[in-house]
Write a structure and sequence with these properties.
There is one protein chain. This protein has 289 residues and is α/β, with parallel strands linked by helices. It is built from twelve helices and nine strands. Strands 1-2-4-5-6-7-8-9 form an eight-stranded mixed β-barrel, surrounded by six helices. It binds ligand C2E and magnesium ion (3 copies). One magnesium ion binds next to β6. One magnesium ion (MG) is lined by residues 178, 200-201, 234. It catalyses: 3',3'-c-di-GMP + H2O = 5'-phosphoguanylyl(3'->5')guanosine + H(+). It is an enzyme of class 3 (hydrolase).
Amino acid sequence: GWLGAGLLIGGCFAFLVIRSARYRLSIEGELEAAIRRREIAVQYQPIVELATRRCVGAEALARWHHRGTAISPDIFIELAERHGLIQSITDLVLDRVIAELGGFLRSHPDCYVSINVSAVDLTSRRFLDYLGQRLNGTGIEPAQIRIEATERGFVDAQAAVQVIQAFREAGHPVYIDDFGTGYSSLSYLQTLPVDALKIDKSFVDTIGYEAASSSVAPHIIGLAQTLGLDVVAEGVEHEEQAAYLYESGARFAQGWLFSPALSAEAFMRFVEAGPPGSVTARSTGTGKP
Ligand code: C2E
Ligand code: MG
Ligand code: MG
Ligand code: MG
């Protein structure tokens, strides 16, 4: 009767309340709240030209400080991907880049920031459209915002190729991130319209520890050269690695040898300071080289 129906409705209600409370208390609920409160920060890791050590740009890396601890992006990005939150993070990172470095990019037209996108960002033009709207009227050139996509991002290969092509047509260079860690690299590389490969840190780590002949890095660089693509080596920690990569033909690199990821302010200072040992216009005050 009525009592049974009342209990049933009450039960459902209690269930929903408990479920939503659980969600709020769960780590994904906390991540969602952090995104809503815009508590995801961004750090910038300088990317340098190996020949000159000049800083050419930075990779934007998302940061989440949760209850006083830094959660690794490897954990919260995966969490965000699983719970449908990643597109909000991609947007938030872009918003921060524009807010924190917009003026700097306008006055440094040769400098760029690359943004990591996830598989879902490559299934439609949604992020590209958002990017276009956000850049409109800022004076930032499209080539100053670059896109890093991992091979994991090519789950729907046909859609990804189209979206990547659309980014490039809009003037945003596209990089394959963590190159070599995916599984079908070679087969799709020929058909994939990209501008550069980022050599995964795992191929840089082995340099100097194994016989040079067993290093895969020069082969990836050779492949990139054959295809007319630029190369950025990631995770460079030692001078020997930088020298070996440079001799093998890599033009660009990032890693703790040059700089860890920095706050926006520290990144701007890093660019203004110029390569180590250089005398910048700022420090001489003459404006002459
Ligand atoms: P990734 O895109 O390959 O980024 C490079 C990672 O290597 C960063 O780790 C960086 O801090 C680290 N790294 C750079 N140089 C060195 C070095 O010399 N030694 C060592 N040991 N590590 C170095 P991080 O910041 O922990 O990011 C991990 C991954 O999380 C990134 O790998 C990227 O795949 C993902 N990620 C970070 N931010 C975002 C984001 O905004 N969106 C998306 N979709 N993914 C992101
Ligand atoms: Mg990356
Ligand atoms: Mg990478
Ligand atoms: Mg990596």
